[in-house]
Amino acid sequence: MFDKEELTVIRKFEHIEHCLKKQVEAHVSTQFENIHFVHMSLPEIDKDEIDLSVELLGRKFDYPIMIAGMTGGTKGSQLAGKINKTLAKAAQELNIPMGVGSQRAMIRKPETWESYYVRDVAPDIFLVGNLGAPQFSETIPNRYGIDEALKAVETIQADALAFHMNPLQESVQPEGDTQYRGVLNALAELKSEFPYPIIAKETGAGVSKEVAVKLESIGIDAIDVGGLGGTSWSGVEYYRARDEKSRNLAFRFWDWGIPTALSVAEVRYATDLPIISTGGIRDGIMIAKALALGANLAGIALPLLKPAVKGDVDGVVNILRRYIEELRNTMFLVGARNVDELRKVPLVVTGFAREWLEQRIELWEFLREGRRVL
């Protein structure tokens, strides 16, 4: 039999395997298809003058893209370390930020730290560590606190910590941790003494305006919406399930959540926090729409996993450069010289996105003047 720590490591292998080999994406969309730009026949700019650089958490990046955290926490096999180092080399080349997967395995099994460590190949990138919300709950014994948070960041020489909120995945996982009582207070306590930025991060079900307001009230530095429309972790757990009851539960909640575009709009409407738009971003036009809705960065994960697992740095870079060129072209066609100007261009919202946002926010006010990043 395996102990709980060993099961955590095994689970990480299974997650990677299913993401590579199975259809794990949501069956519903991000809703970016219902966010429309207005074409400008006279953009009054030159395409080669477009500036794609952005600033976030005190750092300047060449492009408004982040490589989202995917994996880590293995010993013996070099798979997770190979993936992270490949992604890190690409991030170093492009001067964009990167996250690592959950470091719970590293806290439990310190010998796995090397699978998260990338500073030897990417000394300059903005690196984000990663711990899960349930481990800070007041209802679990030996809950995490400042010591574990510092270990997660400082062991791998990260610049910030992602605090991932994944109640959906935990709720359909037979061995999942569903203790969430007191997490907000724990996060507030951590924020009051933690010397690094904290990014509150969802993992595929989106962040609502109500949660965003609570996170802003305790001083969280940024929100990664991790919206619905990309990888469904309930879908991943469907493939991991060992019995019919677990499979049925995971299947029913495969498409649960707030679509990415709508989550970005809600969070931007309700807060002034920096936003990372992760969840089903698959091209540069989607990145442009996320930025136009008020995001600061767009996070990419699943499309980069296949080249990363092969150690193909050029493959990762080529995908990202394609997105970058598509983003640049979109900005040219709407007459935006930089990301700040992109947030001021006209948008038209149709279909389900309009229905949702009209019930959740003052949509027309938001479209006129609510998308600014202060």
Number of helices: 16
Largest sheet: 8 strands, parallel
How many angstroms does the end-to-end distance come to? 53 Å
Please provide the count of β strands: 12
Overall, the morphology is globular
Beta-strand residue fraction: 5-15%
Radius of gyration: 20 Å
How many structural domains does the protein architecture include?
1
Q: For this structure, what is the CATH class? A: Alpha Beta
Determine the CATH superfamily: Aldolase class I
Instruction: Specify the CATH architecture.
Output: Alpha-Beta Barrel
Write down the overall mean pLDDT.
93
Low-confidence stretches: none
What are the secondary-structure elements, in order, as H or E? HEEEEHEHEHEHHEHEHHHEHEHHHEHH
Which structural class fits the helix and strand makeup?
alpha/beta
Neighbour order of strands in the largest sheet: 4-11-10-9-8-7-6-5
- Proportion in helices: 40-55%
Named CATH topology:
TIM Barrel
Question: What would you say this structure looks like, in words?
Answer:
It is a single chain. With 374 residues, the chain is of the alpha/beta class. The protein contains 16 helices and twelve strands. The protein has a single domain (4-369), classed as Aldolase class I (TIM Barrel, Alpha-Beta Barrel). The protein has an eight-stranded parallel sheet with strand order 4-11-10-9-8-7-6-5. β5 (98-99), α3 (104-108) and β6 form a beta-alpha-beta unit. The N and C termini lie far apart (53 Å). 50% of the residues are buried.
